[in-house]
Amino acid sequence: MRNKPNMAPRVAGRDITVRKHSFFYPFFQLFLLVTLSLSQFSKADNYFNELRWDAYLPNDCHEITLEDFQGVEAWPVYGIEGSSRRGFDYEYPLRRDDAAWLWDAFRGGKEPTRWPSRLDKEVQTIKEHKKAMGFDFGAEGEVLELLALVDLHRNFDPERYFFTGGIEYRESPDARTIGELDVLVGDRSNCNIVLVGEAKLGNGSLTKAHHQLARFKEFLNRHNISVSWNAFELLYHIQ
Fold it and tell me: What whole-number distance in Å separates Cα of residue 36 and Cα of residue 234?
């Protein structure tokens, strides 16, 4: 008969065995609870907060930290149909009025039963991913955020990378929110973020998007995280 393995907890390489009915058992439970809480706190740095629960994220990557942004390689702005002619980095083939239709069809937990045939792909994409990604479409821009995150699967291998957004950042838990990150792509193996982007429905919103990216870069700089600047962001940074 195989011997039953020793399942006692270990601390600093030593087995700790406490009988359930002993005097020390309640204190032992408290010790384990505090230890686990501290281990979770050591991962979080309280600068970031998830505005929606994204079930696609690896479990270890839900608490994003400053260190996760040390190797960002791209800072794109995502737009709709016609945006690339205005300087946007990525363009999703969606008309502005169609974005408004999708928002009205899905906001408040609704789902359409009929839709224009030209929106077959978008409707099915939103239906497939909205619940797992935590979208409730409280804001119209979330339509493009979801579509952009799924569209980025063409550029990044989903087996290696995760795609999320809706992350706000601030100087401390009690401080006001400085900004929100729309689009993030990260490495599943270590949670390192490789892309930070903005999604804008208005083709005239490119300047605002660059301002928002510059604001986040300034935030990282204040916390000793080095970033690269493009000409638009550098102009805002200098001002």
Answer: 43
- Per-residue pLDDT, 39: 42
The closest of 178, 190, 110, 123 to 150, measured between CA atoms, is 123
Tokens 């937990």 sit on residue: 109
Which tokens in the block code for residue 67?
Answer: 């260190």
Mean pLDDT for the chain? 85
* Spatial separation of the C-alpha atoms in residues 218 and 214, rounded to whole Å: 6
Span 68-121, pLDDT tens digits: 999 999 999 999 999 999 999 999 999 999 999 999 999 999 999 999 999 999
Q: What confidence tens digit (pLDDT) does each residue in 47-65 have?
A: 999 999 999 999 999 999 9
Who contacts 187 (Cβ-Cβ below 8 Å, separation ≥6)?
A: 160, 161, 162, 193, 194
Token digits of residue 94: 């969606």
3's tokens: 């011997």
CB contact set of 231 (below 8 Å; sequence gap of 6+): none
Polymer length of the chain: 239
Residue reference for tokens 């390689």 = 73
Q: How far apart are alpha carbons 159 and 181 in whole angstroms?
A: 23
b/e burial code for range 173-192 (CB count within 10 A of at least 16 → b)? eeeeeebebbbbbbbbeebb
